[in-house]
Design a protein that fits this description.
There is one protein chain. This protein has helices at residues 2-7, 9-29, 35-46, 59-68, 72-84, 92-97, 101-114, 118-149, 170-176, 194-226. The chain is mainly α. The protein has 2 domains: 2-192, no CATH class; 193-230. Helix 4 runs antiparallel to helix 8 (118-149) and helix 8 (118-149) crosses helix 9. The longest helix has 33 residues, at 194-226. The radius of gyration is 25 Å and the shape is elongated.
Amino acid sequence: MQTIKQSGLVHGILHVLLLSMSAHITRELSMAPGGEFRAAHKASVEVEQCRLILGDRPIQITLQRALASMTFFQKLKFFYHILISHNSKITQEDVEKCKQKDLLEQLLAEMAGDFPKLSKIFVDERDAYMAHALHTLLLRQTESKREAWSRTNCAWQPLRVVAVVGIGHMPGIEARWGDDINILPLVEIPPQPLSSRIIGGTIRLAFWGTVGYCTYRFGRAIYTRISPKF
């Protein structure tokens, strides 16, 4: 409920569904997704003078941009796809296949058929965002280290950066490496289409109207029972 209050009904429901899907994957594989990132965090704690930096775009922005790119009926279809995914079985063979880049590209192509902009938002935009974050980090930290090194007599030691990303993002990050990327459009939340706002407002109005009517009928029934009869 806290997520729904903070992010809105539709965004909150999507967030809850994604968490539920993650829990389903955990049950199927007997391990939680994202183990490589937990291992990276553990290693960063064990290495002296190692800084851990989160370089991916915040998930809230990604979800909001994804929802804003879909029509009302596409959102319903997307929610339906997530719901039925809870019944799918994941085998060890499926896990091994998902390690292949070609299969990932095929899955993204299939997803783009039903949701044309979704693959771009979840993959391409994040590739650009992470490439920019890594490149900016290297430039700024190297300049800072050179400035500090110039005041010492020590031998120069290059800056070392280890990036841990999903295998599906590696080709995109490599392709965008060194590009002049403007990330402002990537973090902008576009307004919802007028049709989605109208349909959403109608549904909310109908919902609260139904709640109000039921409350009125319930209160009237109680009043009729307890009121004195003359």
